[in-house]
Amino acid sequence: MARRKKIYEGKAKTLYEGPEPGTIVQYFKDDATAFNAEKHDVIEGKGVLNNILSEFFMLGLGQIGVPTHFLKRLNMREQLVRSCEIIPLEIIVRNYAAGSLCKRLGIDEGTQLPRPIVEYCYKDDALGDPLVTEEHIAAFGWASQQDMDDILSLALRVNDFLSGVMLAVGIRLVDFKIEIGRVYDGDFQRLVVADEISPDSCRLWDIKTGQKLDKDVFRRDLGSLTDAYTEVARRLGVMPNNPPAPGKPQLVN
User: Fold this and answer.
1) 99 and 190, same structural domain?
2) What is the C-alpha to C-alpha distance for residues 194 and 224, in angstroms, rounded to an integer?
3) Helices (H), the chain
4) Concatenated DSSP letters for 160-180?
5) Tag placement on the chain: N or C end, fewer CB within 10 Å?
6) Tell me, what CATH number does 100's domain have?
7) What is the pLDDT of residues 185-221, one digit of tens each?
8) Residues in contact with 57: Cβ distance below 8 Å, sequence separation at least 6, in sequence order
9) What are the residues whose beta carbons fall under 8 Å from the beta carbon of 101, sequence distance 6 or more?
């Protein structure tokens, strides 16, 4: 497919105009970032794996009635998605204590939480995506109360689906983040799961060994990120036809 006009370039993906009105081509890059992009590598094959895995999760959500922006995968690095208005929030669902939650509340990493905890962060890299409350969201008009009710419902349904899928292949879903978009059909608005769902946006631990199979491998220098993502894809049975060759991360100056 001929390259279209670039709409936006982020840390892990580039968006282009789609072939039809209301569509976008989402290109998965090999870039890996952490600590608000203070750490940055290019890891060969990462974009291919995230594209394949995000397709798998989005299709699975669609099959259980959870609306998403995903339309189809175009090739090894690109997928066609529906254009939507992204709500400026990251929705985080936590099943076990990890990352910032441990730092904020002094909880030991790996502690099972009494129930899934849903948190909201304001999407702004310059501010470090700060944690916000529903009061902030309502006061600044980022989402209505009905939106928030729908977002909570979507987040918990995604959590149920992902937890079950991962448990079946011996992986613990520790936490994940999603983005939600608004799609308009005339005067009618509905919310959909947007962006991506991949090991970039989830914490995934092997149930037996505790081995990390997510971006913490990169954050903490725990080994090959490609190997970790490949293991997730292998267990889920969605390895690409031409899997990326294992290799060491290449440092970008």
Assistant:
1) yes
2) 28
3) 46-63, 100-105, 134-139, 145-168, 216-219, 225-236
4) HHHHHHHHHTTEEEEEEEEEE
5) C
6) 3.30.470.20
7) 888 899 999 999 999 999 999 999 999 999 999 999 9
8) 162, 165, 197, 198
9) 94, 107, 117, 175
